[in-house]
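Hi F.,

I've been meaning to write this up properly since the lab meeting, where we talked about keeping a consistent format for the predictions we share between groups. The idea is simple: the sequence comes first, exactly as it goes in, then the structure tokens exactly as they come out, then a line or two of notes. No screenshots and no reformatting. I'm using this chain as the first example so we have something concrete to point to.
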Amino acid sequence: MTSHRLRLGFAALSVLASLWLTSQAHAGDTVRLAINLSPISALPLIAKERGLFEKHGLDVRVSNFTTGRQALETVLGGGADIATAAESPVTAATFAGQKVLLLARMEYSELKTVVVAPGVKDVAGLKGKRIGYAAGTGSEVYTHELLKTAKLTKNDVTLVNLRPQDMIAAAASGSIDAYAIWEPYVANGRKALGSKASVLAPSNVYSETFNVVVTEAYQAKNARVTIAFLRALLEAERWLKANRNEAIALVGKAVGLKAPELAEIWNDYVFELVLDKRTLDVLTQHAQWRIDTGNAAGDARAVPDFRKVIHSEALKQVAAERVKI
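Output, unedited:
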């Protein structure tokens, strides 16, 4: 009887071990990660700095970009395996017929507008002004949605397409009157421009999400790797929430913001590894914007079914309760 029980016990342990191994990456699996180097990438930055990727069997090699669009384009071009990107590049890729999968949302936040033109107290005051934005990113959608809050259109302003890293210099030189962008370019602009700058931050204009994105081909061949990657991000999220000051210091150092400066805007970011209605709604809203403004590849007239783009299986393996759609 004892021998029989032992055999059953060993058999059960063997099954459990097998199930565990199927959800783990091989030790030292190399992952080329393309990220937007800003506070919105806090979770992968923490996972890298604190050795959480290595803990879960991954050798993650990071390439930094100033936009998620560049990061996803690098993945689509074969130069990286996983990208962190907002919804804008995801909808662009989907309309273009590129096979991408969104594995999880890591963060969401509201974009802001830095104003250097004197006398602009609200969005309506932007009429007739030159506004810098980053084409093909959430900055572009935010700018249009911002104008709508004051019943303005793109014809009421002059839109100037700029790289995020060039916006502060453009504002300082007077070649633009305002720019609409994400952090840290808002905080850095306020610091560089001093009393010349003010910030418009009306609520509920546009919530930009930040996500983990791969190609269908990569996911099909590397399911264990993406599961391990999400495990590391979930651990990073828990550490971030339990260690606010340390997290601010770590992320600030990585993105070039002093801890006190990042602390002032830290609560603007909502860090959560999840797939939820907001994730789906923002993709749908952005896709509809592309259709309405003629920014959808092939002159598409129908919003894609983003439930086919959102791939929930990896996150279900990590934390099933985080999948809410």
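Notes:
The radius of gyration is 22 Å.
The CA atoms of residues 7 and 13 lie 10 Å apart.

If this format works for you, I'll send the rest the same way.

G.
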